[in-house]
Structure formats: C-alpha cells, structure tokens
C-alpha cells in the first residue's frame, strides 16, 4: 500500500474496506496514512469509491474545492473484492464518468478473521476452513477465481485493468499511475504473499512473489482500452525467452502446501501447463483454443 500511495501522490483519497490492512491501519487509535483515509465496510469498496468520486465532483462544481484532479483509490482484500464486494465493484465499473481506482490486494484467504478459504484461494491449500485430514487430504478442490479476467470480460467500457505483483515494485507503481490517469473507473488485482496465512519466513516474501510470476501461476498483464499486453517475466515466458519454473519451487516454500504429495504437485503443474498451452490467452481468457482437425480422406 505504501508503494501504491507513493505512486498516486499527495492529492489522493484512500478508502479502505475492512480487511487485513484495516487492522494494520488503525492500531492504537492512530493511522500511518499521510493522506486522507477512510474506513468503509467489508463489501463496500466499489460503492464507497463511487460515492467519494461523485462527492468530489459536486464539491468542485459548487466551488467548495478547487477544480483539480484528486485521485480516489479504494483498497479491498480478496474477501471484500472477489467475494462480498464483487457486485458493488461491478456496478461501479459501469459508471464510466467517474475517475477512480479499485485495488484488490489478494492474499488468497480471509486473513483478517483467521485465514479462512476465499474464492481466490488456490487448489488444495490448507486454511482453517480446509484443513487436511487423515482420510481426506485435499479439502479445497476449487481453482482460483480469475477476478481481473472477470472485470475485463464483463465491463468492456473500462479503460484499464491489470494484474500486478509488488515483488516487481516499479512495474506495479507504473500500473497504478496509468490506472489513475487514463480516466474512468479502473481495477488492479495485486497478489500479496502473506507470511502468516501462507506460512513462510517474512524474509523470503519478495522471493515468493517472484516465484508466483516466474512459475507462471500468476501472469502479469494489463488491458488498456481493450488492448491486452503481457509484461515483465510473463511476456518473456510467452515469447519463449524465459522458461517457466516448476510450480513446486513456489508451493513447497509455503507451509500451507506442506501436505502436498508428488501426485498433488503433478496435478497443480498440469493445470498451470494447461493454462499456458491451451487457453486463448494464458491467465486471462480460459476458453480453449480450437482443436486442429485433419480432414478425412476422400
């Protein structure tokens, strides 16, 4: 969040839906923010961002505020963005006349309330709601929700949607700046490794974020005015200039996957391979490429 606020600059209003960063931002009745910040409800990131942008417009029109660009950024976690707040975000993204950015920081669980499973939790993960047992090892069988792809497909008038990793900080900050200057409502999905929820040493947080991208599990891309661009290591992978690392390099550094067997690792790898080899656009469009068929002999 510090990087995102730095990229946005001082003329910014931050709205924070209930989540992990709400707790971090309000400890001991104080806040670390040096710019205006307001807490909002768990599922209200979209509606609060739209309300703030509309209020600013009215105040500027009445002369209460100087008519100048003021950034509106709403933060939400995966619980508040991919789950409970999805409808409000979707409704907000249809309001093309209001300038705002919604950032979903995704630590792949409801980490604020005890590491419960969310719709962005990866296959097989150990959470307090999907704890491996003796008789049933894999308790979470769903694949991660493709939230950025959902925003692209369902909101064609949105001018900017991107995925970022703060392990690649400069690229993430550039995405924020572009989202804030292009106009209209925009959306960024940020993967955030969580030492507590993912069970790893905080000293390797940067490495974990890098591995998510370099294994191909977390593709980096941006869609600007309907045009898709892969960037960073993801582009190098797509162009054959960088070979994807095995998913085991990423998964086995996290205690939440400590129960995985070789069979589980192979299945996870097969799904990532399928995404890269058979999706129309890896990580973005989960439609299959049309199979090539040979015409029957006459």
Question: Characteristics of this structure?
Answer:
alpha/beta, two-stranded antiparallel sheet, Rossmann fold, 298 residues
Short recap of the structure:
This protein has helices at 2-8, 20-25, 45-61, 78-83, 86-93, 147-154, 169-181, 195-198, 205-214, 232-238, 247-251, 262-278; strands at residues 12-17, 37-40, 71-77, 100-106, 160-165, 185-191, 221-224, 227-230, 279-281, 285-288. The strands form two sheets. It has an eight-stranded mixed beta sheet with strand order 2-1-3-4-6-5-7-8, sandwiched between helices. Strands 9-10 form a two-stranded antiparallel ribbon.
What does this entry look like structurally?
The chain has 298 residues and is of the alpha/beta class. It has one domain: Thiamin diphosphate (ThDP)-binding fold, Pyr/PP domains (Rossmann fold). The protein has twelve helices and ten strands. The strands form two sheets. Strands 2-1-3-4-6-5-7-8 form an eight-stranded mixed β-sheet, with helices on both faces. A two-stranded antiparallel ribbon has the order 9-10. Helix 3 packs parallel to helix 5 (86-93). The longest helix has 17 residues, at 45-61. The protein is globular. The protein starts with a helix and ends in a 10-residue tail after the last strand.
């Amino acid at each position: 969040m510090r990087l995102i606020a730095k990229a946005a600059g001082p003329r910014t209003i931050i709205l924070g839906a209930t989540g992990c960063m709400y707790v971090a931002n309000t400890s001991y009745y104080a806040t670390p923010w040096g710019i205006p910040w307001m807490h909002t409800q768990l599922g209200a990131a979209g509606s609060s961002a739209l309300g703030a942008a509309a209020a600013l417009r009215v105040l500027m029109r009445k002369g209460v505020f100087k008519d100048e660009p003021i950034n509106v950024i709403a933060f939400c976690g995966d619980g508040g963005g991919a789950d409970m707040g999805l409808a409000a975000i979707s409704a907000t993204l249809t309001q093309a006349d209001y300038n705002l950015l919604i950032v979903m920081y995704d630590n792949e669980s409801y980490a604020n309330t005890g590491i419960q499973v969310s719709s962005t939790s990866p296959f097989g993960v150990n959470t307090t709601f999907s704890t491996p047992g003796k008789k049933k090892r894999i308790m979470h069988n769903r694949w991660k929700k493709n939230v950025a792809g959902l925003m692209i497909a369902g909101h064609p008038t949105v001018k900017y949607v991107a995925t970022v990793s703060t392990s690649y900080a400069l690229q993430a900050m550039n995405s924020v700046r572009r989202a804030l200057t292009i106009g209209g409502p925009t959306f960024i999905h940020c993967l955030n490794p969580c030492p507590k929820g993912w069970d790893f040493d905080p000293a390797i947080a940067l490495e974990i974020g890098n591995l998510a991208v370099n294994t191909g599990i977390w593709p980096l891309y941006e869609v600007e005015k309907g045009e898709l661009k892969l960037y960073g290591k993801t582009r190098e992978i797509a162009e054959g200039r960088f070979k994807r690392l095995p998913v085991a390099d990423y998964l086995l550094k996290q205690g939440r996957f400590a129960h995985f067997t070789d069979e589980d690792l192979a299945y996870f790898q097969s799904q990532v391979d399928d995404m890269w080899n058979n999706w129309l656009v890896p990580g973005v469009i989960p439609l299959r490429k049309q199979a090539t068929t040979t015409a029957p002999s006459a």
